[in-house]
Amino acid sequence: MLFSNTNIKAINATTVEVTFKEKVENVGDFTIEGLAVSNAAVKQTDDKVVVLTTAVQEGGKKYTVSHAGKEIGSFEGLSAVIPTKIDITTQSVQGKVGAQAILSADVGVKQAGIPVTFNVKADTTTTLNKDQVFEAVTNADGIATFSYTQYAAGTDSVVAYPTGAPAVRSLGYVFWGVDTILAIEDVTKEVTVNNGANKTYKVKYLDPKTGKAVAGKRFAVSFKENINVNVNQLSNAKVNNVNPTQLLNGTAPKVAVIITDAKGEATFTVTGENTAVTPIVFEQAFASNTANATVYSEEYKSDVLQATASKVTFGAIQADYKIELKRDGLEEAAKGLANGREYNIVVKDKDGKVYDLFEKIK
Question: How far are the Cα atoms of 50, 205, 249, 306, 359 from residue 322, in angstroms, in the given order?
Fold first, then answer.
């Protein structure tokens, strides 16, 4: 057997496959350091592969394989744990055509080496994008991550499930465009602002297929902290004078609506007191037509195109200044004489410039 280009991979927690370049004539003696091998046999469907049956592997641990006393490679052990839950960490992801989109899934168990399958269903009807299947293993935090790309604009649905339990699954979406489809920029750069002050953001939307700006596109704006919560958990903040809400009690959701201009841009302003909020901008779905207008849904869902803005904190911010006290004359003065002291107070900003109070309140 030729050991060059040997590929070794754990198939599950007790099975390892060793793939050789040529047909295996004689299985010989296989050993794995730190792991018992109970059987070695040529795979029935591929005579270039030897299947090793092992003791239970330790997830994430690196094992070295030897044949006839010679090291031929290594593999990473898989865990025998089969999770009972899984969550795709970001259920709506934007991908740029030709670049890698990254998705992760949390199995709820902090253990490395748990295999997770990601099944990608592409829009194969109107695009040349392909369905794909990937397997990744979790890190020590129980997070499995993979990346992939497509070469045309379209929307993929991605199902993640523990490889040994396909009924336990989570669903996410990847929105592909020739450029970033939906982006949010901080117009106001500060991340912490005074109570009652404003922070402004700018949204830009580009057509997924052409990359050109689109006018008249509707988006809803809400706060991450106000979605699927109870009334007493709502933040004390507004966007464009609307307090966006999506409550667990079934009350109709409320959002601020923005519409892009000829440049594909729209702005929104957030204000609040003693709170911190994270704006989310998402595409408004069509709901129905009435005699007088088209009605759009105000409900946030994870399967729509969306982008998350930077978090802003509102609070009482103390001005950054320095006070200098100057006296004319010496520290000591004779008692009873008309020789008091005059003191001058000078206030300077953080750059050492004199702070003109009267100028500030004009």
Answer: 76, 45, 50, 44, 18
